[in-house]
């Protein structure tokens, strides 16, 4: 635990954080602390010992070529690997100081605090827009109608979808366009009021206009949430992240302020990847 | 991989190198026209200035075209540095043209005895420019850093020359037109040195990603 | 100008088209003939009495198959009660839980059972239920039909659940929803149409089974009042009437066949209707 006191966090000047409007107490400044994270699937070691700190109320981007382990890393942060029988996770992950992998802790509790949005939007097809947004609450036992209504409105507003759907909340969720469906999935994740939002290439299946809206949304969301986003689009990472981590073959190669990584990376492999001269 | 982009980047570099060579030659010729009182050479320099202007336009166009492809890291720094250097080189060309024009005027009149310092200053400046462009070609940030303080020497020289010429104008009113021309030449040389310093600063940024401009102020 | 090769190719094309068209027609022909023949033979005897009256005394004309129709529905209902929940849960187990080895054995067993001749099912339940209870019964009939439905519904449920994209499960897990809730309230809900289709198809198949009922339900000339008593069913009644020497009963058998056929056809049409492509995504 003494390791926790040595942050492995690149300096993030307050001016870069829009959360600077709401001062963050020091104990809350690092949202996720990852130490020596190793993930193996059967015999194959996919993540080979990753150590990094992820700051709160900021956007951290994870970039790297296919197969570098970035999605595996993301899923280790909310214990999604617990559902894969052949997966084994070693190392430690702390959420605001609490070990999320400790034995007494139910994975479902962790996943209510750390939400996830996927690459392909997946609103539940048999449910309406309203039902989709509140499903996380309802299926976790929340019955209070006022509370559900409140959370739903809030979540849809935060996901910049409220104005577009407020008149047709009972319409089937799949009647929305691709970009709207993805924002619906974001609203669905937000309704549970997580502290961290993990996003696995959330805009890669969308057209440029829808992508731009999602990016704007993320920049708004980072005022209140910690966001970790996996992306293969470097310009996207450059546009909206505060910190960027470059992964290659299961290792964290370089981690620093986005502007530094993209204007003068320190590691040659990072430079090669970022300028498209890999391989 | 980035083959086509690399080819375009290379094209940019080649254009910039060609422009650098042209600007250096322009300064050399202008100084030569001055010291040798060569009217023909001076006219050539003035005509050549159009070519340098065209270079700047082409390089900027190519750079914008490349920027639209959202390059990063070294590529990004190279393109922005290329734009800055081309601007500096174009101004160098303008200064060389000014020197050439004054050289033409001076060659029509008898030479002044006290114009000895100018050739020396010209040599310093030509050397600075050549070295700064070499640093760019050979990617030598340390040599570029070493270059920067020499600008102060040139500034100092310029001040001395101006003072000397001022005295001369008071002492010999007939020499005033020639002195004024020489003052302009000195000022232009001083500006060329400034531009050489700028190029050196850009070289440091390109190689080390450090912005060392305006550090001494 | 078409060359000789081109003309030959065109001819081959048309020939194949003609052959396949003819074969398709041959396939549909028996179904058409069945429908036509049954309709022609049975429509005359289908009347109000047929649906409301009990069978008349032997030899006399008149009477209906009211009890057989009701009996069929009763047997199917009870069989569903017995077979559907088990098969559903089994299908859920196969799709969402279990190990690959265990599941392989379960699937293998289910596929074998699907192929067991129906008369053997009847004999097995005879030994298991009829003998201990010392008589034919509606219970035995329900049990045999339920057991026959089981492997069918098990496999279709499993297949339909496996078709539900994994993305939905992941999305549910990522919201902190527990596994069993995800399965019941998200996955099964998404697959509901397919599951119901599987159940209906199994019902349609089992509705016409005669051989197993011979050994279990046995048939009844009167109304059934207890699970422990024999019960009439359409296929049974048709069989008994058809092998009898009475003209009137023959006609009633045709009517029964028509009703049974329509029943099965209606189920299939319902299934088609429920699974139609309502909108493209």
What descriptive keywords fit this protein?
heterotrimer, A: 279 residues, alpha/beta, Rossmann fold, six-stranded mixed β-sheet, 10 helices, globular, disordered N terminus, B: 217 residues, Methane Monooxygenase Hydroxylase, Chain G, domain 1
Account of the protein in words:
Chain A has 279 residues and is of the alpha/beta class. Chain A has a domain at 30-122 and 196-274: P-loop containing nucleotide triphosphate hydrolases (Rossmann fold), CATH 3.40.50.300. Chain A is 32% helix and 24% strand. Chain A is built from 10 helices and 10 strands. Chain A has a 6-stranded mixed beta sheet with strand order 6-7-8-3-9-10, sandwiched between helices. In chain A, strands 2-1-4-5 form a 4-stranded antiparallel beta sheet, covered by helices on one side. The longest helix of chain A has 14 residues, at 145-158. Residues 1-5 of chain A have low confidence and may be disordered. In chain B, α1 runs antiparallel to α4 (117-138) and α2 (39-67) runs antiparallel to α3 (73-107). Helices cover 84% and strands 0% of the residues of chain B. Chain B is mainly α and 217 residues long. Chain B has one domain (3-208): Methane Monooxygenase Hydroxylase, Chain G, domain 1 (Up-down Bundle), CATH 1.20.58.220. Chain C is mainly alpha-helical and 281 residues long. Chain C has a domain at 69-234: MetI-like (MetI-like fold). Chain C contains 11 helices and no strands. Chain C is flat, with a radius of gyration of 24 Å. The two termini of chain C are 46 Å apart. The mean pLDDT of chain C is 88. Chains in contact: A-B, A-C. The interface between A and C is medium-sized, with 26 and 21 residues.
Mind sketching the topology for me?
The complex is a heterotrimer of chains A (279), B (217) and C (281).
Chain A: E1 30-41, E2 44-55, E3 59-63, H1 70-76, E4 87-95, E5 98-99, H2 107-113, E6 114-117, H3 129-138, H4 145-158, H5 162-165, H6 178-191, E7 196-200, H7 208-221, E8 226-230, H8 234-240, E9 243-248, E10 251-257, H9 258-263, H10 268-274
Parallel strand pairs in A: 3-8, 3-9, 6-7, 7-8
Antiparallel strand pairs in A: 1-2, 1-4, 4-5, 9-10
Helix pairs in contact in A: 3-4, 3-6, 4-6, 6-7
Chain B: H1 3-36, H2 39-67, H3 73-107, H4 117-138, H5 141-147, H6 150-171, H7 176-208
Chain C: H1 4-42, H2 48-52, H3 66-96, H4 100-115, H5 118-133, H6 138-163, H7 166-174, H8 179-207, H9 211-216, H10 234-242, H11 247-274
Helix pairs in contact in C: 1-11, 3-6, 3-8, 3-10, 4-6, 5-6, 6-8, 7-8, 8-11, 10-11
């Amino acid at each position: 635990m003494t390791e926790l006191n040595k942050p492995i966090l690149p300096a993030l000047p307050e001016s870069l954080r829009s959360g600077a409007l709401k001062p963050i107490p020091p104990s809350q400044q690092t949202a996720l602390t990852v130490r020596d994270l190793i993930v193996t699937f059967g015999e194959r070691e996919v993540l080979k010992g990753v150590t990094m700190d992820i700051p709160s109320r900021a956007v951290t981007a994870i970039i790297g070529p296919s197969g570098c382990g970035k999605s595996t890393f993301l899923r280790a942060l909310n214990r999604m690997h617990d559902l894969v029988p052949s997966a084994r996770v070693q190392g430690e992950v702390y959420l605001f100081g609490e070990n999320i992998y400790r034995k007494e802790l139910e994975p479902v509790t962790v996943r209510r605090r750390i939400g996830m949005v996927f690459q392909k939007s997946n609103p539940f097809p048999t449910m309406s827009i309203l039902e989709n947004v509140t499903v996380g609450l309802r299926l976790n036992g929340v019955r209070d109608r006022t509370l559900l209504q409140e959370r739903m409105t809030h979540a849809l507003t935060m996901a910049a979808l409220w104005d577009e759907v407020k008149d047709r909340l009972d319409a089937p969720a799949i009647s929305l366009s691709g970009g709207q469906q993805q924002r619906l999935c974001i609203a669905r994740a937000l309704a549970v009021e997580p502290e961290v939002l993990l996003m696995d290439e959330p805009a890669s299946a969308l057209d440029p206009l829808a992508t731009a809206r999602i990016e704007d949304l993320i920049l708004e969301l980072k005022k209140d949430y910690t966001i970790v986003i996996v992306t293969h689009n470097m310009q996207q990472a450059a546009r909206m992240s505060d910190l960027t981590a470059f992964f290659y073959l299961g290792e964290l190669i370089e981690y620093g302020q986005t502007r530094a990584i993209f204007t003068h990376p320190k590691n040659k492999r990072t430079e090669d990847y970022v300028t498209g001269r890999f391989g | 991989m980035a083959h086509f982009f690399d080819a375009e980047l290379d094209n940019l570099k080649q254009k910039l190198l060609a422009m650098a060579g042209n600007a250096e030659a322009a300064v050399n010729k202008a100084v030569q026209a001055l010291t040798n009182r060569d009217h023909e050479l001076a006219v050539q320099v003035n005509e050549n200035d159009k070519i340098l202007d065209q270079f700047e336009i082409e390089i900027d166009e190519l750079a914008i075209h490349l920027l639209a492809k959202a390059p990063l890291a070294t590529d990004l720094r190279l393109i922005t540095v290329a734009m800055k250097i081309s601007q500096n080189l174009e101004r160098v060309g303008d200064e060389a043209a000014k020197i050439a024009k004054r050289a033409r005027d001076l060659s029509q009149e008898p030479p002044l005895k006290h114009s000895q310092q100018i050739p020396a200053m010209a040599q310093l400046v030509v050397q600075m420019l050549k070295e700064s462009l070499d640093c760019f070609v050979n990617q030598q940030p340390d040599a570029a850093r070493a270059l920067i303080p020499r600008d102060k020497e040139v500034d100092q020289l310029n001040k001395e020359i101006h003072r000397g010429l001022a005295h001369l104008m008071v002492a010999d009113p007939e020499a005033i037109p020639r002195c004024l021309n020489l003052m302009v030449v000195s000022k232009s040389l001083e500006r060329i040195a400034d531009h050489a310093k700028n190029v050196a600063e850009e070289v440091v940024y390109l190689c080390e990603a450090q912005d060392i401009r305006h550090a001494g102020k | 100008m078409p060359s000789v090769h081109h003309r030959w190719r065109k001819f081959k094309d048309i020939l194949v088209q003609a052959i396949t068209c003819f074969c398709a027609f041959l396939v549909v022909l028996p179904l058409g003939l069945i429908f036509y023949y049954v309709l022609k033979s049975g429509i005359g005897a289908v009347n109000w009495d047929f649906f409301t009256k009990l069978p008349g005394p032997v030899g006399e004309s008149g009477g209906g198959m009211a009890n057989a129709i009701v009996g069929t529905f009763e047997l199917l209902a009870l069989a569903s009660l017995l077979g559907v929940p088990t098969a559903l849960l089994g299908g859920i187990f196969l799709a969402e839980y279990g190990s690959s080895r265990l599941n392989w054995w379960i699937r293998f067993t289910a596929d074998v059972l699907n192929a067991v001749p129906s008369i053997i099912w009847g004999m097995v339940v005879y030994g298991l239920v009829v003998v201990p209870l010392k008589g034919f019964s509606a219970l035995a009939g329900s049990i045999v039909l339920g057991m026959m439905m089981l492997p069918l519904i098990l496999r279709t449920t499993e297949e339909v659940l496996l078709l539900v994209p994994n993305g939905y499960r992941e999305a549910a897990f990522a919201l902190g929803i527990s596994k069993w809730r995800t399965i019941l309230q998200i996955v099964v809900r998404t697959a509901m149409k397919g599951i119901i289709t599987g159940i209906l198809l199994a019902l349609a198949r089992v509705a016409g089974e005669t051989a197993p009922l011979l050994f279990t339900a046995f048939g009844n000339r009167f109304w059934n009042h207890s699970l422990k008593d024999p019960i009439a069913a359409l296929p049974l009644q048709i069989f008994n009437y058809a092998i009898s020497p009475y003209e009137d009963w023959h006609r009633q058998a045709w009517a029964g066949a028509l009703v049974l056929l329509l029943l099965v056809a209606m189920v299939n049409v319902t299934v088609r209707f429920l699974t139609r492509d309502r909108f493209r995504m």
